[in-house]
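Problem 12. The chain below contains 285 residues. Write out its predicted structure in C-alpha cell notation.
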Amino acid sequence: DGDVRSGRGVFRGVCSLSYLEQHILTSALSPSYYRRYVDDTFCLFKDHECVQQFHNYLNSIDPSTQFEVEHENDGKLAFLDTVVSHADNSHYPAISTRVKPTDKGLFYNFNSFIPDSYKRNLIYCLIYRLYHIASSYHIFHHDATVLRKKFLRNGFPGHLYDNIVGRFLDDQHTTKEKPLTVPKRNVIIVLPFLGPLSYYIRRRLIGLVIKFYPAVSLKVIFSRGNHIKNFFSYKDRLPLKCRSGVVCGVVCGACGPSAVCIGGTGNALRGGFFGPGGRLHPSSG
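Solution.
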C-alpha cells in the first residue's frame, strides 16, 4: 500500500518486516543465523527442507506479504554487494565483492577532460570497497587484480593504480600520530575546471593563503565546466497557441469586463477556439 520508491512505502515495508520478525524469530522454524538489511535477509539453515518449511511459514502469516527465496548455487550465495561462499578448512565463510553479470567494466576514460582528482578518487573508492568487503587478503588480491585490468582497458596507467593501492594499504597498517595544533578554519572554493590552468591557480591560491592566513585551511574543488548543450534548452518551447491544457479567460465584447468566460483547453489552444466546435468558430454561433 504505497510506492516502495517513496519514503512512505519504505517505512511501511520496514514496519511490516519488524512486526513479522517478532513471530518468526521465536518460532521453532527460525534459522540458526538471521540478518536483515531493509527488505533483504540472509539466513542459515541446516538443510534445504528447513528452508522450504520456513519459507512456507513466512508466506502463511500474511497473505498480502509474500516472500521469495534464493538458494545457494555451487556453494555461493549473492547478498547485496557481496558473494558469500563456503571456505575450505574454515568455519567462517569466504566473502568477496559481487560483480553483476551485466557489468561491462566501463568507467570514464583516463583522457577525459575532468580533474585528475576525479580519476584518483575513483580508484581509491573502489579499492576501499574491495578491502572492506574481502574476508581475506587472498580474496582482496584477486579482486584488486581483476579491477586493475578494468582500469587498464579504460586507459588508466598501471603505475597510477599500483601507487594508489600501495598508499591505501600503507594508510591501513600505519599509525600516524597527528601533532596537537590549533584547529584551522576550513574554507572551500569551487572553481570551474579549465585544464592545466586550474592546477596553477589552485597552487597560487593555496600558497597565498598559507603565507598570509596560516589559520585557514583552503580547499579548492573543481567542477566540470559548462558544455555547449547547457546553453540551449533540451526542446524548443511550443508557441502558446499550440499548447494544450491552457486556462484562459474570454471577455464578452457586448457585455464588457463584467462578463468573463473562464475555461481550459484539452487540445491545442488555437484548436479550442478556432477549430471545429471551438468557442470562436463561426459554426458555434
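Discussion. The chain has a mean pLDDT of 80. Students who got a different answer should revisit the alignment rule from Section 12.3.
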